[in-house]
């Protein structure tokens, strides 16, 4: 990529929309590494385009990124079928401004992205482009290779599917979420069973992703008592020193866990009505490369 952005219209346009393209690809794929690959593929195709023939550069870039994401998503679907244990999206450490943008934070939350996993690749692309980024039906049709009428039907079907499965209550403000996570963090560092029960919702769900490389529950753990005992039992079995720090994961308050100073995993949480209703713990090292680099992404 050329370094003189101002002198190169193609590079200037790509850089201007890079964060948008990354976010579109990430929300479609659930993988930061694959989203970065999509950006590279998008760039290689973009530099071959005759810019004089492009009416809307942003829309054209989104079209390229969407098509590349769809190609990759179909391949990833086969990989996930052979995955050991629950599959969680690759966590992103996001800047605080993302957490303050309620719509963006919700669109990339672990809870919603798990729901998006139940859509077909085309449904997911249409839903993400329309619901998260308000892309026009005309532009979406060009991106997914369907008619506008078909895209409207797909969008309606995908929205109905997601609405039936997404969390009913809206996530709490970021400040409230951080306060609840602080109580959870204290319980985690002290192994206080009652401390967990005080902060976990009765029907809380814990999903852990070790990818067959790190120990994790092979099925979701449901219920405050079971989740609390699972966490306390896991921390009691290790002889390593546990350190837990606050962060922002996928636009919501979360925690980074380290054992003897080494990154062990990232835990995202969903907080509703002052209690934790969802915990999403990623331990698979292959999904923690962005976190290990401590890079915080501002996605707008």
UniProtKB/TrEMBL annotation:
Family matches, as Pfam families: Sigma70_r2 (PF04542), Sigma70_r4_2 (PF08281)
InterPro entries registered for this protein in UniProt: ECF_Sigma-70_Domain (IPR052704), NTF2-like_dom_sf (IPR032710), RNA_pol_sigma-70_dom (IPR014284), RNA_pol_sigma-70_ECF (IPR014303), RNA_pol_sigma70_r2 (IPR007627), RNA_pol_sigma70_r4_t2 (IPR013249), RNA_pol_sigma_r2 (IPR013325), RNA_pol_sigma_r3/r4-like (IPR013324)
All residue ranges annotated as the RNA polymerase sigma-70 region domain in the record: 15-78
SUPFAM superfamilies from the UniProt entry: NTF2-like, Sigma2 domain of RNA polymerase sigma factors, Sigma3 and sigma4 domains of RNA polymerase sigma factors
RNA polymerase sigma factor 70 region 4 type domain location: 110-161
Keywords per UniProt: Sigma factor, Transcription, Transcription regulation
Coiled coil, from the record: none
Domain of life: Bacteria
Homology family: Belongs to the sigma-70 factor family. ECF subfamily.
PANTHER family hit by this protein: ECF RNA POLYMERASE SIGMA FACTOR SIGJ, SIGMA 19 FACTOR
Protein's name in the database: RNA polymerase sigma-70 factor
Organism in which the protein naturally occurs: Actinomadura violacea
């Amino acid at each position: 990529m050329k370094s003189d952005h101002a002198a190169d219209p193609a590079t200037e346009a790509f850089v201007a929309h890079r964060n948008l393209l990354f976010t579109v690809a990430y929300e479609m794929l659930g993988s930061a590494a694959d989203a970065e690959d999509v950006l590279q593929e998008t760039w290689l195709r973009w530099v071959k385009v005759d810019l004089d023939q492009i009416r809307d550069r942003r829309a054209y870039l989104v079209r390229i990124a969407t098509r590349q994401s769809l190609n990759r998503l179909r391949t990833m679907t086969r990989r996930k079928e052979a995955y050991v244990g629950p599959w969680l999206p690759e966590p992103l450490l996001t800047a605080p401004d993302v957490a303050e943008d309620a719509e963006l934070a919700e669109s990339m939350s672990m809870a919603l992205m798990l729901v998006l996993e139940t859509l077909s690749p085309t449904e997911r692309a249409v839903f993400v482009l329309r619901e998260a980024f308000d892309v026009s039906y005309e532009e979406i049709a060009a991106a997914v290779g369907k008619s506008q009428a078909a895209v409207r039907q797909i969008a309606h079907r995908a929205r109905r599917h997601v609405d039936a499965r997404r969390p009913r209550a809206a996530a709490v403000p970021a400040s409230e979420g951080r306060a609840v996570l602080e109580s959870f963090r204290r319980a985690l560092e002290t192994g206080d069973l009652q401390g967990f029960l005080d902060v976990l919702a009765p029907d809380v769900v814990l999903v852990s992703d070790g990818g067959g490389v790190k120990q994790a529950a092979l099925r979701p753990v449901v219920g405050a008592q079971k989740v609390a005992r699972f966490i306390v039992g896991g921390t009691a079995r290790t002889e390593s020193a546990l350190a837990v720090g606050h962060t922002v994961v996928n636009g919501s308050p979360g925690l980074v866990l380290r054992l003897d100073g080494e990154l062990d995993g990232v835990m995202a949480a969903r907080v509703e009505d002052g209690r934790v209703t969802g915990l999403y713990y990623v331990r698979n090292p292959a999904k923690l490369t962005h976190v290990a680099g401590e890079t915080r992404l501002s996605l707008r």
